[in-house]
Amino acid sequence: MHDENSFPPLRDLPPGRLGAVKRDLLAEITGDAQPRRRAGLSFTRGRIALVGLATALALGSALALVLTLQAPRPSASSQSGPRTPPLYEPFTVKTTSGAQGVTSINLTVESPDSGASLQIQVLRSDASLPLQAMQQNPANQQVVYQEQVPMTDIPSPASGAAGTVARATWSGVLSPNDWTGGCQNSLYRIVAKIADPTGTYSSFSAPAHTLGGQWFNCSSG
Amino acid sequence: VSEDWNRSVLTGHSGDMRPADEILWARVRADDPQAFGALFERHARAIYNYCFRMTGSWATAEDLLSTVFLEAWRRRHKELSKGLVLPWLYGIAANVVRNHQRSERRFSFAVRRISPESPEPDFSEAADGRLDDERQMRRALVLLDKLPRRAQDVFVLCAWMKLSYEDAAQALDLPVGTVRSRLSRARTQLRELDSAPRTSSE
Predict the structure, then answer these.
(1) What backbone torsions phi and psi does residue A89 show, to the nearest 5 degrees?
(2) Complex ipTM value
(3) At what angle do helices B130-144 and B176-195 cross, to 10 degrees?
(4) Which of B27, B33, B187 sits opposite A215 (nearest CB)?
(5) Could you report how far apart the first and last alpha carbons of chain B are, in Å?
(6) What is the pTM of this model?
(7) How close B177 gets to chain A, by Cα (Å)?
(8) Per-residue pLDDT of chain B in tens (202 residues, 90 and over written 9)
């Protein structure tokens, strides 16, 4: 106990668990952003809640059964997005930096739809702006780069429910010289918009999926 | 964009342009889950190890890690100054662990009554693997449990997690002077307990 410095060393989570925990965490907060009740219920209130929950579940199950029997099953492409966490990495951004700042950005985008098209955008915002103003007002975000490219269908996609496995992919390398103004002391963000197979480039105004990276400062100065 | 269809090219690059915690937190406050994911990746290890040091179980620590970050997301509209994100997460973790221990107290008590293999704790024994960690940690927690709860919190954050007095004060919402005095008293008490004769139940 008295040797505080040599006590059990800091350990990482077991292999694969960090990603798994993060995936579950993000699925929970994006699927239900409502506050979770953390305080325990009293015994009486807990019983009332349980009875209510059981009643609601019974009614809900009956209703769901009726709706399932009557409604046509929607196709995967008509769904707004997977309800379960994807089993792939939809958007990967890896940067390489030098003394002056970012030198290249490797991008990988994966889509749950085959035949999908992709629009890559680089957004720039003034680093001196208040963060809230930058985040909430699109007028403070300037598109300094935009390109549309087809995605490549994956010949043998992994098995899994529609919407949870990648069926098309695209990889590319972006350089700060590619976008207007190059690498400045500004905040940048990479955004990927995916149009599903039924869409055209004009559908990027309402893409099937929009994926955004984190804001970063391009210049190290 | 120069297309590169060989995905293996994308591996091996390491990004070092990491936005500061406060920038990420501003995104989180604007309901950005990706920024929250980045904060999770950055601080998960620290919170995971803190939870382990408070519970003595890596599995429990992993469960509590999720709970801590879910609670952080629930409270995401809180304004945090520069450098205070991690101390604030430690503060949440302290509360989460405390709630867990409260609900698991009877179970935990029963587990700890199962005598460890050696009645003489040996903290100099090298930790070799997670099981060794847990065995050592449980022995240490037997001693730590004899301190007042507030002293335990300060000791774990400052002595085991190496937080500064200021950060621990932020995490526990205490004056810095209180942290110093509690840590000092905790160390003194632990030295006395560690050198005292032990009963077989320890």
Answers:
(1) -95, 105
(2) 0.70
(3) 100
(4) B27
(5) 65
(6) 0.47
(7) 21
(8) 333 322 222 222 333 456 788 888 988 888 888 889 999 999 999 999 999 999 888 888 999 999 999 999 999 988 888 889 999 999 999 999 988 887 766 555 555 554 444 444 444 333 356 777 788 888 888 888 888 988 999 999 998 888 999 999 999 999 999 999 999 999 998 888 877 665 544 4
